[in-house]
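Many introductory courses stop at the sequence. We go one step further.
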Amino acid sequence: MLPQEIIRHKRDGQRLPAFEIAAFIEGVTSGAVTDGQVAAFAMAVFFNGMNRDEAVAMTLAMRDSGDVLDWSDLPGPVTDKHSTGGVGDNVSLMLAPIVAACGAYVPMISGRGLGHTGGTLDKMDAIPGYASQPDIALFRKAVLETGCAIIGQTADLAPADRRLYGIRDVTGTVESVPLITASILSKKLAAGLQSLVLDVKVGNGAFMEKSRDATALANSLVEVASGAGLKVSALITGMSEPLASAAGNAVEVRNAVDFLTGRLRDRRLEDVTLALAAEMLQSAGLVSSNQDGMRRATETLASGRAAATFARMVAVLGGPTDFVERPEKYLPRAATEVAVKAPADGFVTGIATRDIGLAVVGLGGGRTRPDDKVDPAVGITRLLPIGAEVQAGDALALIHARSPLDAEAAAATVLSAYAIGGSKPPADKTVIRRILPRG
């Protein structure tokens, strides 16, 4: 069927049968569908949506556009998580080794940054030598030997999604619930998972700023995953301030190493990481309750086993064997560092989190076009959280830039993103609610 006819059907609000969706996705994979047609289809879906059956059909078509992995030879459960994206969200770097050290296998296929949000794959690329897009043989070796591997899509896994992902980023169609759903789940289903936990962000740094929109996305993900035969649950977590005190690529990797080794653990980051770990362990059948999962994850982190698992994963995938012991030796550093100073005494009462992410993109730490090169060294560290008390002249954050001019522009953005008030605001919940399949 002609792709323009399928586009027209969705443009006019029609429900697409599974065979039309499969034909269009096959064209996306083969190249028979042009970039313009992909963009037009994405925009039609953005405005007219998809029902559950359409979203399931699109997810399965994208899964089947390449290889589907089989982990039946592994001696333990295969599980993963996915975050819908935020600022300072480096949870995957700690979560995968924590859960793996507890006895699960975590073949984590991650994406690059979208819009103002950072991408796990871009973070891993900051580690010298690390093969973030290995062949299937090396991927399997890493998972078997270390329990986890954080990689990007190989050429053989959900190739239709890889093309759609890049086009969505630059055509204003990122926030479409069915497109997000199919993108996330096609990769996870191609990874051969037995269970999946979803971290759906809500707030001014998330794609879904309003609670009802985040809940709609979480329900869509859970229902479509369940419809595709995957055991699934979701947590809705807050993203109205950066999750970690660092935003960027190399700086978030360093933050993750510090977290794993106990040198520094941002409170909200720890809350989300351990909540997701407990959920994954329960979903994988390794613990009988969320409370048991939380206890086991906390003990595994404190013992150093999670840090050792991360170190082995990095080494097996080509990174330095002493990376966890000496991350500063290997991670790139920006030439310029500039502190952003508080203009007045008071408390941090709010942060325009999306603007923090855009400041990182402006520094070169993200993309404005799919083929943009990312500078792994740039970013922002020492981001003060909401509720922090400051005196005029105290540092709100530290900019890491390629040049003084870049640093000045980012500092201005960060300064305007911070609100300072006279009284300390109440703390928001970090983990807001849990969502399971209906029925």
